[in-house]
Amino acid sequence: MSIMARLPGCMIATLALASLLPAPAAAQGSGPLPRTADGKPDLSGIWQAVTTANWNIQAHSAEKDVPAGLGVVEGDEIPYQPWAAAKKGENFANRATADPEAKCFLPGVPRATYLPFPFQIFQTPNHIAITYEYVHAVRRIFMNSSHPRGPLEFWMGDSRGRWEGDTLVVDVVYFTNQTWFDRAGNFHSDALHVVERYTPITPYHINYEATIEDPKVFTRPWKISLPLYRRIEKNIRVLDYECYAFGLERTWYRPPE
Amino acid sequence: MRSRCPMLLPVLVLASLIAVVDARQEPAKPYAPPRTADGQPDIQGIYNPVGTFYNIEDLEYQSLYQNFKPNPSLSGKSLIIDPPDGKIPYQAWAAEKRKPIYQLHGDPTPEYVDPNAQCWPQGVPRHMNNREFEIFQPPGHVVIFNMAHHSYRVIPVDGSPHIPENVKLWLGDSRGRWEGNTLVVDVTNNNDQTWFDVMASFHSDAMRVTERMTPVGPDRIEYRAVITDPKVYTRPWTFAIYFNRSKDYGSELYEEACVEVNDRNMELLKRPGRN
Fold this sequence. Notes:
The complex is a heterodimer of chains A (about 260) and B (about 280). Chain A is α+β, with helices and mostly antiparallel strands and about 260 residues long. Chain A is about 15% helix and about 25% strand. Chain B has helices spanning about 10-25, 90-100, 100-105, 265-270, and strands at about 45-50, 80, 135, 140-145, 150-155, 175-180, 180-190, 210-215, 220-230, 235-245.
């Protein structure tokens, strides 16, 4: 269902007008956020990050097939413990094969958010689901509930959500130590704890922040932030990207010549 | 709630009296599920398919070669209700092509490995016949999460059109509508990589599936899928199964990674003399 279908006529007219304004004006505008029946911001829809963070979450120069970027890490510093800084360097050297993305593995959190693929948010009062195009990763965010008793390990972690004003706050734990933050070898352990904050700033933009904590790897918590953009193309849809199957397909149906 | 329409209440009372009379005339009243906030029949929950995913043409086939205690009443029993013989109506070349599976299914060469064992998305209808799954109904959608391979299927029920025909997807492009309490889903854009079970039951990318999911009680859904594929079958055929509500996992399914932990399984297939 489109946002339009859920809004009264007067609001549709307002949104239609807003869409005619240049983007910066719309972003600054205080136009009403779409809301669900229980008054929360309605985040449902298809979103995508536009960033080079999947290559490197820190600032980096261009290389062949790698666009330059200013990074998404606050202060541009990742506070590795000394052994972990060495390990990161090793990961970087071996990144072409060692990156779990090269094996098409589930990307973990927050990397799933800023991979160059769209994802869809489905929202009800007690349960929010995010379906990602990349290797059909999926997250279930149960609201106002506790993490189950561990120890547990999930590639995408265990997500529990709550609303703080108009911000969806998601607490994610129980990760594996197998995923990276980017193609540059930035990594974590199974003690990773991510707190995500999804704050809609217009009907078409979400400010996404993630606080990263991992006492086995970092000396202190650190933070990334980036905007998410609503995909507003007509008939936009999350498709599939089953990259582990590429090159292994078997075509059975061709009848004999 | 105060009514804005003063005539509504008497009409409703009258309607309910008529309904009572009707109920007396038709005692076998169908199950009426509750409604979601956006008015869909509410069939949300975790379900288990009742049946097998080994050989949909013979529910006891697996016991013939594995050490299961056979259940004679299921031998030869099929999940296919049309055609009446319970067999997939393959064209002659297609029946010939899959013949070796009867020798190979327990110890397959790479071409005969079940795509599901390679962690590939199951395709439809196997997505509904492969372990526990959850039905979730956010506004305007029915979303199905299968625990196996964490695969999901998004079914818009908002009248939106299919994607362009040349785009092929592992789980197809699903568009749904409610006919009374039955969810009818038209699945197009299927790729040609998935099987219906372990037995090389294949199809082409011309396959189209029409699913009908009807809640027949608070804990049971009747599922029918009509499968057409003029490139591989001689006629449409119908797959039928029930889903029972599952309480085994409480209210939440787990993540089941597959590709990530499957290297060893694939290694087992690389034996001397095999390629």
